[in-house]
Amino acid sequence: MLIGIDVGGTTTDAVLIQDGDVKRSAKVPTGRPQNLLKALLSALDAVSQDIAPEKLKRVVFSTTIITNLIAEGKTSPVALLLIPGPGRNPAEYKFPNSFLLKGAIDYRGREIQALEEREIKAVATHLKREGISKVAVISKFGQRNPSLEFRVKEIIEEEIPGSKVELGHRVSGKLNFPRRVATTMLASATKEQYGHFVSEIQKALFERKIKAPVYILKADGGTLPLEKSASLPVETIFSGPAASTMGALALTSEKESSVVVDIGGTTTDLALILSGKPLLASKGAKLAPYLTHVRAFAVRSLPVGGDSAVRLVKSREAKAEEKEEEEEKKTAKQPERQIRIGPDRAGPAYCQGGPEPTPTDALRVLGLSEIGDLDLAKEAISGLASELGKTEKESAALILNRAAELIATAIKDMYLEWEEEPAYRIWELLQEKKEKPKTVVGVGGGAKGLIERVAEKLGVNPLIPPHAEVGNAIGAAVARPTLTLNLHVDTERKEYSVAEKGEIVKLHRTGIKNINNMRSGEAEALAAKLLQARAESFGISEYAGEAELIRSEVFNMVRGWATVGRLFDVSMQIPAGLIPEWKGGEAK
């Protein structure tokens, strides 16, 4: 027996899978953050009541809570102390609350410019005055020598007692300084909320005496032991979108190609499956306006959901929008363009006691949903209808059309990004012709009533599979572990580092006899060995044998007409997939 639970901003979905099939499912309100424990207990009870806790073999959680916080701009402010060194113009780094510090590390990990401690203390004084206690310190090439980051951390903690300092080399050890800055900033901004989330899960499981292994779903569609995730919260920022992708993968035919649209209460998540394989973002996840190093599916979270606030655009704003559309040579303005959906969520849908009309109310009025009170839904829509000069049903249809239009437009925009991904280009070559997937798969509570409209605007086929309303929970329950390891070797300095650990280790510890003449095969073998050890420490070694080599590069360092050393960069991964116990039952 397996349990999957997806904690969304609006509802918490749960499934019980027994002998490879969905046996029970439930949706309960998530409520306010302070009531999270209640939601978790309700979800667990709904699917595991009358089942002895020892019969449960695995529990997996996914969540959109962190994604929603970022999408809605509700994260805590973080001061960024950046040590960019020479090269790119620092003025190009447009991050909020950022301070540029002197000091530099070169690409080999050598300190070439010292810090100025007076400068750091002056920044600390400013932060104290502004009341900012969360700080992220990121040095260019800090993953190859974190000494400057450590020293800045010491000074900040001395000057600002109780401050919480995140170091860039511990969050991401990959190259690309701006992406590492964004990743560290988001990790710092969400760490406290994620810690609360983990704590509430542990309380819920303790209260129900569940001792089965517990996992969290990561952004790349793989699971990670819950206790390990506390030190890697950034890996779970896109957990919710990954769950919907894995759910669609589990609920559709093998080797299917489709666009996945997960319509939740707060956001709509978009992803792509090509011939049965979710498309990965080759350089890291994107959450507007930030590009990160988080290994993730190529997804986008759109701030449009079932509980997004629906308002009418004021006349002055309508004119501004109409002028902008004319400049972009778009079609004439339609009546429904007066309707604005989101980007905020004021609370639950009006039909569930919330303060403002929402798409959920429109679905209820049109008989496409049983959620909430019908009279309240009509009351919510009637106010808009009177201003639009339409009937309640006409107004409800306009709301859904506007929501579908926003989603369809976002999918079209995403295609431009998806087509730039190497895996997408390879897939197109294998098709022997340029084409896009012909199916839109809808999952989530808001799929019914919206997916057909989205598919119509895109000219593709809609598909809502069985159990789609709890597709995220299924995706979490049946996802297998993943693990990635990025190895950097410098033979001249006789040391190596693993990006995911942020440590520098001497090569003589590896047992390699001739370090000066090290070959690519030896670097790859070292990466495989280190990945195996890391998998064992995470308790997922059974999948380590399926690790794939995804990158292997070597750079010869020449001095005085002779090779003095080599730099190796090797990346390996245990790829995403479904656990063998999943059969899918009627879903297939």
Structural description of this entry:
With 588 residues, the chain is an alpha/beta fold. Among the domains are: 79-193, Rossmann fold; 483-574, no CATH class. The longest helix has 31 residues, at 177-207.
Q: What's this model, at a glance?
A:
The chain is of the alpha/beta class and 588 residues long. Helices cover 35% and strands 23% of the residues.
What class would the helix/strand composition place it in?
A: alpha/beta
β-strand amount: 15-25%
- Helical residue percent? 25-40%
Average pLDDT, rounded to a whole number, is 86
Count, helices: 16
How many distinct beta strands? 27
CATH architecture level-2 label of the domain at 79-193: 3-Layer(aba) Sandwich
CATH hierarchy class name of the domain at 79-193: Alpha Beta
Strand line-up across the major sheet: 3-2-1-4-11-12
CATH topology of the domain at 79-193: Rossmann fold
Largest sheet: 6 strands, mixed
Shape descriptor: globular
Poorly predicted segments:
330-337
N- and C-termini, Cα separation: 20 Å
Task: Lay out the secondary structure.
Elements: E1 2-7, E2 11-18, E3 21-29, H1 36-48, E4 58-63, H2 65-71, E5 79-83, E6 98-100, E7 104-105, E8 111-113, H3 117-130, E9 134-139, H4 147-159, E10 164-167, H5 168-171, H6 177-207, E11 214-217, E12 223-225, H7 226-229, H8 239-251, E13 258-263, E14 268-274, E15 277-278, E16 286-287, E17 290-291, E18 300-302, E19 310-312, H9 315-327, E20 339-341, H10 359-365, H11 374-388, H12 392-418, H13 422-431, E21 439-443, H14 451-458, E22 461-463, H15 471-478, E23 483-490, E24 495-498, E25 503-506, H16 520-538, E26 548-559, E27 562-574
Parallel strand pairs: 1-4, 4-11, 5-6, 5-9, 9-10, 13-21, 21-22
Antiparallel strand pairs: 1-2, 2-3, 7-8, 11-12, 13-14, 14-15, 14-18, 16-17, 19-20, 23-24, 23-27, 24-25, 26-27
